[in-house]
Amino acid sequence: MTLAQSSSDFMACADCNIRNRAVCATCEPHELSRLEDIKYYRTFDAGQSIMFEGDEMHFVASVVSGAATLSRTLPDGRIQMVGLLLPSDFIGRPGRDAVAYDVVAIQKVTLCCFRRKPFENMIKDTPHIGQRLLAMTLDELEVAREWMMLLGRKTAREKITCLLSLIGRRTASLHMQKLQDGLSFEMPMSREAMANYLGLTIETVSRQMTALRKDGIIELGGTRTITIPDLAGLMAETGDDTDGMMLT
Amino acid sequence: MTLAQSSSDFMACADCNIRNRAVCATCEPHELSRLEDIKYYRTFDAGQSIMFEGDEMHFVASVVSGAATLSRTLPDGRIQMVGLLLPSDFIGRPGRDAVAYDVVAIQKVTLCCFRRKPFENMIKDTPHIGQRLLAMTLDELEVAREWMMLLGRKTAREKITCLLSLIGRRTASLHMQKLQDGLSFEMPMSREAMANYLGLTIETVSRQMTALRKDGIIELGGTRTITIPDLAGLMAETGDDTDGMMLT
DNA sequence: CGCAATATTGAGCGCGATCAAGTATGGTGG
DNA sequence: CCACCATACTTGATCGCGCTCAATATTGCG
Questions:
Q1: Mutate: best of A146, A149, A161, A237, partner B, most B CBs <10 A
Q2: Is residue B7 part of a domain?
Q3: How far apart are CA B195 and CA B231, in angstroms?
Q4: What's the pLDDT score for residue A178?
Q5: Which chain regions cross the lipid bilayer (chains A, B) (predicted)?
């Protein structure tokens, strides 16, 4: 029944790299083994759709590796991304039959999937999972609201610098780099994806990237390789209060 | 210790008008009586601040009546509202010491407050509350994401018609009006509040309201009394898929 | 190498912001 | 009851950021 879609057929939860950040983070060993019974892995290539808005939701999942986006589309074709899914993030909404957003892989993605019904039952009788999911959902809500500020009130330059600073710092923390000396990373998304995430057009994204390069705020090696010589300088352009954020 | 701030000192939960929609909706009688022990009412006048961003959060609360807003402010003063709190909505984030947004009453508001620590303990040992809070938070997340689409991709006219349609339909459902023949309601917020909610300026809001009036989409009697002769006509201007939304 | 997809650059325009008056509206005290 | 003032809202003139349309350049891939 459970069709293996991937080469990595099985991995023990104990060995999982998102073990202590995902929805299963606070599970006891016996809870974990129940999850282990209903989980299965799937992978999707960059560009592949994972779920379509309006479809029936057969499974929920944790992102194990790679990246995906949540987006909505207006009848006339305008697109707005409403979420970025990175390792340990949760996909799907318990208690809802239909998918509310398009979910698309922007890098090769591995998911740890749970069939929806068994997972919903586990929420009911496993408080740890429900509590963890609540905390994660509250975090997502805060991220969404910070993004509302960006979309509603920030200029194009501020939007771009916010995104670069976000991705840059996240990548650095993943690789334990220190932030002081030049930070280098790969952008996980195309110019079009950036535009849809920031509420801009491709052309404006491109122009602002060029402007930031000319101003010495960033350096580009290929379109997706970005170097930030002075992170504080970049963050001074975001419009945010920069105090205390350098600690992360 | 618990200082009564209001004339309505006490109300039995059983008689509460948000009893079956708020965070307490799925509570059993014994759980409800525990909540009843730690609850107290407070009222705030229109314009009064309820919480300030960064302050310590002493209590969480349900909105019983009236309306309040959540907003964030950039260092240079730009404001973006990130949430609208109406009766049955929940204020505060369990497990977090500091308030993440400014909370301001935009109408006279009555809150059903719970001191934070006792409430957090109840979440741990009362699954019904945690589950209800999870469902409500997921709903809020969906609303926030729909608002991201509005802020990032919609025109000023679409933004205004979305807001009017939202408030109008909600008011109608509260008063059990049928939607077909002219719908009339009071706008609960100023032009400035509308602007901050929609990511626009006051002037643009005002101009779009005038334009909609001249186009016969809305009628104005005083600045806050709004009549919508043809709701379908208004909704055709929102940019959304209008199918199926008229049922609500 | 050749093609397709992606990104950059340019010219011009228009939507919504800004700056600036002007007009209700509502509360207060004489 | 009305004159007064503060606040909220509307309207007008102009500006400029980001969009549109269009051409060119670059990248990635068979």
A1: A149
A2: no
A3: 22
A4: 66
A5: none
pLDDT of residue B3: 36
In three-state form (DSSP H/G/I as H, E/B as E, the rest C), the secondary structure along chain B is: CCCCCCCCCCCCHHHCCCCCCCCCCCCCHHHHHHHHHHEEEEEECCCCEEECCCCECCEEEEEEECCEEEEEECCCCCEEEEEEECCCCEECCCCCCECCCEEEECCCEEEEEEEHHHHHHHHHHCHHHHHHHHHHHHHHHHHHHHHHHHHHHCCHHHHHHHHHHHHHHHHHHHHCCCCCCCEEEECCCCHHHHHHHHCCCHHHHHHHHHHHHHCCCCEEECCCEEEECCHHHHHCCCCCCCCCHHHC
Q: Are residues A48 and A119 in the same domain?
A: yes
The yes-or-no verdict on residue A99 having pLDDT over 80 is yes
Q: Could you tell me if A21 and A88 are in contact, meaning their C-beta atoms sit under 8 angstroms apart?
A: yes
B114-168 confidence digits (pLDDT tens): 999 999 999 988 889 999 999 999 999 999 999 999 999 999 999 999 999 999 9
Shared domain for B51 and B120, answered yes or no, is yes
Q: Are residues B221 and B161 in the same domain?
A: yes
Residue at which a domain ends, from B101, B122, B151? B151
Rounded mean pLDDT of chain A? Answer: 91
Cβ <8 Å between A198 and B144: no
One domain, residues A143 and A240: no
Whether A221 and A187 map to the same domain: the answer is yes
Low-confidence ranges of chain B (pLDDT < 50): 1-7
A214 within 8 A of A230, measured Cβ to Cβ:
no
Query: Do residues A71 and A170 both lie within one domain?
Result: no
For residue B3, tell me if it sits in a domain: no
CA dihedral sign, ordered A46, A51, A54, A55:
positive
- Structural domains of chain A, count: 2
Contact residues, A window 145-184, toward B, CB-based 8 Å cutoff:
145-149, 151-153
Domain that holds residue A127: 13-151
Closest alpha carbon within chain B to A151 = B152
